[in-house]
Amino acid sequence: MILESAILHGFEALSEVPSEQLTWLYNECSLLELSDGQLLCSPEEELTGTYFIFSGSCAVCRYQAGIKHEIGVLYSGEITGYLPYSRSYRTSVHIFAKERVKVLVLPLSKTTDMIASHYELTQALVHVMCNRIRYMTSFQLQNEKMTALGKLSAGITHEINNPAAANVRGAAEILNYLRSIPSDIGTLTNRLREDKKRETVVLKLKELEDKVEDERSISLKERTVLELGITEWLEDEGQEDCDELAEKFAEFGVGVDGLKDLSAHFVGNDLCWVLNWIGAFLEAQRTALNIRGASRRISELVQSVKSYTHMDRGTDRQFVDLHSSIMNALMLLEHKLKRLNISFIEDFGLDIPEICAFVGKLNQVWTNLIDNALDAMELTKNGVLSIITRLDKEEVTITIKDNGTGIPEDIRTLIFDPFFTTKEIGKGTGIGLEIVNMIIAQHSGSMEVASVPGNTSFTVRLPIENKQI
Predict the structure, then answer these.
(1) How far apart are CA 223 and CA 113, in angstroms?
(2) Which domain holds residue 293?
(3) Which residues contact 140 (CB under 8 A, 6 or more apart)?
């Protein structure tokens, strides 16, 4: 039996375990043989024991969106399955044989005896568990970062694409207007030959400039009334096919009262031409303003990304405006609010001071909590996201609320556990809230959660005076 148990001496993790303990281990194990592709364990079934692979190799796989991804390989001499003092009796991955594999299996029923009587063996297996946790945590943290980066980059790309496309369209429209100027110069000179006519047009342009910059939205009813009024007036002046011209001025909120005085100086084709020219000039101005607005939006997004990633500063603590930090994270998720048609309520306390914090890490807190809230409202009609900040003695409280599906009471205590997630495979990694908890702890803060269907809130408490770590 000593000779047979020598198989276990080949395991690096067991090299310091006394021979008599390895003999006990070998005697208590059963032999499991797997063919290529056969499953050793999976998240769907409880582990049957501790697995000692002494021949062949196994693929460690994770499914995302129904697609199997190999994330590692277990070779001969490695140990997996249930390990002493672990609270989990299920694995978070699928393990398949890559070839013909032989495994020694220590049944779960023998774990208690091992812990009670075989200290060095237990110690060795606990060390294996620590290494496994370290590896899986590192992998999951990297995966979480890539997932978060993917979400943010998709949103930022979408948000930047809209104003960028608007700029392209606007530039094309202005180019068309500019190209028409040479041919208009002669006509404009002839029609505005008299000083009074020139003065009238200049004054009208100045009068209507305010209309161009007015961002007040005009209702469909108001626009219809303005269009009808201009159309009827132009028809009375002998103009035909006036609908398009009337629509152009109505869009700026200009009615017949704002144009009627032109008929005192222009009649017939002159009136029609001048109105079209003024309309084109106003449209060019509006397009230029739209380009300016879209460019500002791109600039704001870039600035939000810069602030969010804290690119221009070191990794030390900095004094941070919590409201700016929250709004930067919210801006990067704005595409999701729009897609889910979610309303946002901002209730910020005016007396919130700056706090000393790891800015980049704090941004991760808001991103995770807001993103989770949005996911919870995905199937909710009239979703509402609320963010409330208050000064409470020596602490600042930040509450993020949603009216989504809520967190069932039986799992509420588990949501901060590593790798626990209620999201479908490929959508959640189960470490977002663990990271949040860890970052808040680094800031000497705390977090509370309250949830019933239709009302879930995460409240973060951060001390105003933080001790340096």
Answers:
(1) 84
(2) 159-301
(3) 418, 419, 429, 430, 431
Report if residue 469 sits inside a domain. Answer: no
Q: Hey, what are 131's tokens?
A: 């290494």
Half-sphere exposure in the Cβ direction for 23 (13 Å, CA)? 6
For residue range 217-258, what is the model confidence (pLDDT) as tens digits?
A: 677 788 788 888 888 887 777 777 677 777 777 777 777 777
Q: Which tens digits make up the pLDDT trace of 95-149?
A: 999 999 999 999 999 999 999 999 999 999 999 888 877 766 666 656 655 555 5
C-beta neighbour count of 71 within 10 angstroms:
14
- Dist CA 31 CA 52 (whole Å): 10
* Reduced 3-state DSSP string for 209-257: HHHHHCCCCCCHHHHHHHHHHHHHHHHHCCCCCCHHHHHHHHHCCCCHH
**Pairwise CA distance, residues 391 & 398, whole Å:** 9
Q: Is the dihedral of CA 419, 423, 426, 427 positive or negative?
A: negative
Mean pLDDT per 10-residue interval, the chain, length 469 residues: 67 91 93 94 93 93 82 90 86 91 94 93 90 68 59 67 78 78 65 71 74 68 82 78 76 77 76 80 81 77 63 65 88 83 92 87 86 88 93 92 84 57 45 76 89 91 67
Would you say 263 and 255 are in contact if contact means Cβ atoms under 8 Å apart? Answer: no
Question: Angle between the 322-332 and 119-191 helix axes, to the nearest 10 degrees?
Answer: 80
> In degrees rounded to 5, what are phi and psi of residue 362?
-65, -35
Cα 151 from Cα 203, distance rounded (Å):
51
Q: Which of 280, 301, 322 is the last residue of a domain?
A: 301
CATH of the domain at 347: 3.30.565.10
- Give the span between the Cα atoms of 443 and 469, in whole angstroms: 9
The 3 state secondary structure assigned to 15-81 is: CCCCHHHHHHHHHHCEEEEECCCCEEECCCCCCCEEEEEEECCEEEEEEECCEEEEEEEECCCCEEE
C-alpha dist (Å) from residue 323 to 312, 346, 354, 401: 19, 10, 9, 16
Beta strand pairing status for 343-348 and 384-392? parallel
- Amino acid residing at 428: G
Residue from 280, 129, 86 nearest 201 by CA: 280
CATH value at residue 30: 2.60.120.10
Q: Are residues 163 and 277 in the same domain?
A: yes
- Tokens found for residue 202: 């200049």
Whole-number Cα distances in Å, 270 to 169, 188, 208, 232:
30, 10, 19, 18
Last residue of a domain, one of 301, 333, 367: 301
User: What b/e sequence results for 259-269 when a residue is b if at least 16 CB atoms lie within 10 Å of its CB, and e otherwise?
Assistant: beebeebbeee
Residue type, 316: D
